[in-house]
Design a protein that fits this description.
The complex is a heterodimer of chains A (501) and B (214). Chain A has 501 residues and is an alpha/beta fold. Helix content of chain A is 52%, strand content 12%. Chain A is built from 23 helices and 12 strands. The longest helix of chain A is centred in the C-terminal third of the chain and has 24 residues, at 477-500. Chain B has one domain: 3-Layer(aba) Sandwich (Rossmann fold), CATH 3.40.50. Chain B is built from 5 helices and 12 strands. Chain B has helices at 3-14, 42-55, 68-78, 111-115, 168-171, and strands spanning 59-64, 83-86, 101-104, 119-122, 126-128, 133-136, 153-159, 164-165, 181-184, 189-193, 196-199, 206-213. In chain B, a hairpin with a 2-residue loop joins β10 and β11. Chain B starts with a helix and ends with a strand. Classes of the chains: A alpha/beta (501), B alpha/beta (214). At the A-B interface, α2, α3, α4, β1 and α8 of A face α1, α4, β9 and β10 of B. β9 of chain A pairs antiparallel with β9 (181-184) of chain B.
């Protein structure tokens, strides 16, 4: 795996390879099962979980329905508190802004807090082109960066690596990035964490520029919130002279009070803790404490296009907890890289095609990377109905229709390669509209049932390789109903009509 | 058109389905969740705080106001602390009994200087029992954020019962959003290797919380 998402194959092809990787499968099964059981216990501690979940969804919906209002309010509050706000319509613009801001400091190195938004826009690569080295400081991001790899999980980007692989990466790569791995490093997680502490210490103490994302931005007060565990976040948010935060516009929440909901929902859903070790909040700049220059880059990059879809917009409620990944049977087997974006798993399957559009092969394949079992919806702390959006996006891929891309309304053509599906659906639609034809068809199918093949011919073959074809009964339900209850049903219908008159 | 206007115009077009009359306070948020989980006496709340702090590997001690200086002196000595960084507004008598060298935090002290300090002693703004959290708001007895971050040993004094609340919803109204806040729940930790929890990464690896009665 090299460090880019460009040219990633469609999900089925990538998954065909990754599901055969037995080490990956073992690593993922171990990790996802550990965390999902812990999460269930952490959630069970709160009797009002369902009500917190409903409140979390409602707060985000309220924010989304008036996003323009809250963004302007946020901008005012951050500016009044001494911050500078920048707006980026897409990834390129965000990268240009951040590159310029770093250049203005005269620095060529920055330390980074783990941030999904900067992964999404490819900030590290853009900075590297400008001669600026970005050091990832989250342990898992460090493992990914040192291994020239890609993240495969929202919370634990190196979930696909086990301890002995991590040890090997540290011993091989740390020296070329800074302090080498200690002599005799074992593969115990405690020793590996200690190696990361030593490796990054000097970087934290000398860094002049920090780059972060944010979990929440409070519109009323202009406060940003970063939730973390290791303390690398605190280091990057506190020690540098300049802080640049790149945050998706949907991370806004209206009020300070709203944090009482999310600071309960997020840690329990994410790391399965009552509270994560460190949460930092800051509002603009504070004299003598922390960075004296603060820039907030508000990122669109497909979010407003997602907002324009009244079914799909619920994906923007996401607080990036990754609970949906940990329960997903498809994610557990295919792994995060198969999703071809920093957002893997069920949430990635609905977010990536909306942020990037469904024109690409990978993006068009993602809504199908699901068995629609619904486990993701059940654990989602902001009640995103992921199966609903998956089905909606499948419809968009097959049927095409009106969408918004780059802020412009356009009509999407039906995707190629779904002609058979479309034809079958059209035929089914017609048959259900014509009861006579439906009845005749079903009777014909029933009479010829002995002749039906066990497997489908032609392109349907792959599908029936792993599935039983449904058996056609000797008599259709409609015929059975007519035969056994027909009189009754007719009488009832007559009575119903009579009383209605 | 500036990018600001571009993004805001896109947002407004995307929200064409939202009725004109609907204000930013709509739709209302159902806040029927619990303000506190279960009912506890003040003493039970403090017990829960101690239990949850310890569950996430903070070391918890209890004493009264008279016993605090001796306890702090003992805890610093046990860690072999020779130097202690002190926030500007820390009550003088707290550290009256220690032999360690007391270093006032000055605006000039660099991260490297702090890295050479053994311990830090602070108060806190509020503590949350249900989550085992202490919150620092950079007040006079807590100091700048960096002094509780770089040294490897943090001693945090919580005045009970005044500074203890039951839950997160009870804590937020007591905190000022315009102050930089640090919520601390146990020493730094990571679950990044096989989702196994390991305590002690970049923040102080030892967190000791002292619950001081009146």
């Amino acid at each position: 795996m090299s460090g880019t998402y460009l040219g990633m194959p469609a999900f089925p092809r990538a998954a065909a390879a990754s599901t055969r990787d037995t080490r990956l499968r073992a690593n993922l099964t171990h990790a996802t099962h550990t965390i999902r059981d812990k999460r269930a216990r952490a959630v069970a501690e709160l009797d009002d979980w369902a009500r917190l979940r409903a409140a979390g969804a409602a707060i985000k919906d309220r924010m989304l329905r008036h996003l323009d209002h809250y963004l302007e309010r946020l901008e005012t509050a951050v500016t009044e508190a001494g911050g500078q706000v920048h707006w980026a319509a897409d990834a390129d613009e965000a990268n240009r802004i951040v590159t310029r801001l770093v250049r203005e400091t005269g620095e060529t190195e920055v330390v980074k807090v783990k941030s999904m938004a900067t992964q999404e826009i490819g900030l590290n690569e853009a900075l590297a082109e400008a001669g600026i080295r970005a050091y990832e400081t989250d342990l898992a991001e460090l493992i990914v960066q040192l291994g020239n790899d890609l993240p495969s999980h929202i919370l634990v980007p190196a979930i696909h690596r086990n301890r002995s692989e991590i040890r090997a990466i540290f011993r091989r790569e740390m020296a070329s990035w800074g302090r080498p791995a200690p002599e005799g490093l074992s593969d115990s997680p405690a020793e590996l964490a200690e190696a990361a502490r030593l490796h990054l210490r000097e970087k934290f103490l000398t860094a002049k520029v920090g780059i972060s994302g944010a979990n929440f931005m409070v519109a009323d007060t202009g406060t940003l919130v970063v939730v973390e565990s290791e303390g690398n976040g605190r280091m990057c948010l506190t020690l540098p002279e300049t802080l640049i935060s790149v945050v998706g516009i949907e991370k806004t929440v209206p009020t300070w009070q709203d944090l009482e909901v999310f600071l309960q929902l997020l840690p329990r859903s994410s790391t399965a803790e009552r509270m994560n070790p460190y949460t930092s909040t800051w509002t603009g700049t504070t004299d003598g404490d922390g960075p004296q220059t603060f820039h907030l880059v508000l990122l669109d990059n497909g979010r407003t296009d997602t907002l324009a879809d009244t079914v799909g917009r619920q994906a923007l409620r996401c607080i990036r907890c990754s609970a949906c990944l940990n329960v997903c049977p498809v994610y557990e087997r295919a792994g995060g890289h198969a999703y071809g974006s920093p957002y893997p798993g069920p949430i990635g399957a609905i977010l990536t095609p909306q942020l990037r559009g469904t024109a690409g092969k990978l993006e068009a394949s993602l809504p199908y990377a699901s068995s629609l079992c619904g486990a993701c919806y059940e654990v989602c702390p902001v009640a995103i109905d992921i199966p609903e959006v998956l089905v909606h996006l499948r419809e968009r891929v097959v049927e095409g229709g009106p969408v918004t891309r780059g802020g412009v309304r356009t009509v999407l053509k039906p995707a190629r390669g779904h002609a058979a599906e479309r034809a079958a659906m059209r035929a089914a639609g017609w048959a259900f509209d014509h009861p006579g034809a439906l009845r005749a068809g079903m009777r014909l199918a029933a009479r010829t049932r002995r002749l039906h093949p066990r497997r489908l011919p032609g392109p349907g073959r792959a599908w029936s390789d792993t599935r039983e074809l449904p058996a056609v009964p000797a008599e259709s339900f409609r015929d059975w109903w007519q035969r056994t209850r027909g009189e009754e049903a007719r009488d009832e219908a007559a009575r119903g009509e009579g009383s209605a008159k | 058109m500036s990018s600001r206007e571009v993004v805001l115009a896109r947002v407004r077009r995307a929200l064409a389905d939202v009725p004109r009359g609907e204000g930013p306070e709509d739709p209302p948020v159902p806040r029927d969740y619990d303000i506190e989980h279960g009912s506890r006496t003040a003493a039970e709340t403090i017990d829960l705080l101690a239990e949850n702090l310890a569950d996430y590997r903070a070391i918890v001690h209890r004493t009264d106001a008279a016993g605090l200086p001796a306890l702090l002196a003992r805890l610093l000595a046990e860690r072999g602390a020779r130097t202690v960084v002190v926030p500007p507004g820390l009550p003088d008598h707290w550290l009256a009994a220690t032999d360690a060298e007391l270093l006032p935090d000055t605006a000039m002290s660099t991260p490297h200087q702090l890295d050479a300090v053994d311990s830090v002693v602070t108060g806190c703004a509020v503590a949350i029992a249900e989550t085992g959290t202490v919150v620092l708001d950079a007040g006079p007895d807590q100091g700048r954020r960096r002094i509780t971050l770089v040294p490897d040993h943090h001693l945090c004094v919580v005045r009970v019962p005044d500074q203890v609340v039951g839950s997160v919803p009870q804590a937020l109204p007591r905190l000022a959003p315009d102050r930089p806040l640090t919520w601390i729940s146990g020493p730094s930790a990571t679950s990044d290797i096989e989702l196994d929890r390991v305590e002690g990464v970049h923040g102080p690896r030892v967190l000791e919380v002292i619950l001081v009665g009146r």
